[in-house]
Design a protein that fits this description.
It comes from Rhizobium leguminosarum. It is a single chain. The chain is an alpha+beta fold. The protein has a single domain (3-147), classed as Aminopeptidase (3-Layer(aba) Sandwich). The protein is 22% helix and 27% strand. It contains three helices and six strands. It has helices at residues 3-16, 82-96, 123-128, and strands at residues 21-26, 29-38, 65-73, 101-104, 132-138, 141-147. The protein has a six-stranded mixed β-sheet with strand order 1-2-3-4-6-5. The radius of gyration is 15 Å and the shape is globular. The N and C termini lie far apart (35 Å). The relative contact order is 0.16. The model has no long low-confidence stretch (mean pLDDT 85).
């Protein structure tokens, strides 16, 4: 997708709802973001050539199958638990909007990981939130899943 197409796609997602992610502010300025929404709203997550592709053909079209696909944190916030809080908020956001399953394709964090590759999240934060590995199509890149049925929301304000 070209940059203009991505911008138009994001505008359309915002108009249609639910919001495609959570934006965190400090002192009135955005400082962190997590993208979370129905899998079908993240076309690059569903390409047959990606490690994040769905396990089953219909999973990409199922509106109750959601994905956490991107994190952004200002450098000064990294290493302070913000990714864990963003993921907790993403889980609650997905649950409140009818998701029954949440998937991610993080990276196994190693010392030489570049911050740019961690935009997909570290396996450790998904492990800590209860996600389970359901496929491993590439070394260091598990497809992880959290079933949301019968799990209560953890907090009303996970970022607080």
């Amino acid at each position: 997708m070209a940059a203009d197409e991505r911008r138009a796609h994001m505008r359309d997602r915002i108009k249609a709802g639910p919001p495609p992610g959570i934006l965190c502010y400090a002192d009135g300025a955005p400082v962190a973001w997590v993208q979370v929404g129905p899998r079908h709203d993240v076309p690059q997550f569903n390409s047959p050539r990606t490690v994040s592709r769905p396990l089953e053909e219909g999973d990409a079209r199922d509106p109750s199958n959601w994905a956490v696909s991107c994190f952004f944190l200002l450098p000064k916030l990294r290493g302070k638990g913000m990714s864990h809080r963003l993921l907790a908020a993403a889980i609650d956001h997905a649950r409140r909007h009818g998701a029954r399953r949440l998937e991610a394709c993080p990276i196994d964090h190693v010392k030489q990981s570049k911050s740019v590759t961690l935009c997909i999240g570290s396996t450790a934060i998904f492990d800590a939130a209860g996600f389970e590995t359901v496929a491993r199509r590439k070394d260091g890149r598990p497809l992880m899943r959290l079933e949301l049925r019968d799990r209560p929301c953890r907090t009303e304000n996970a970022l607080g």
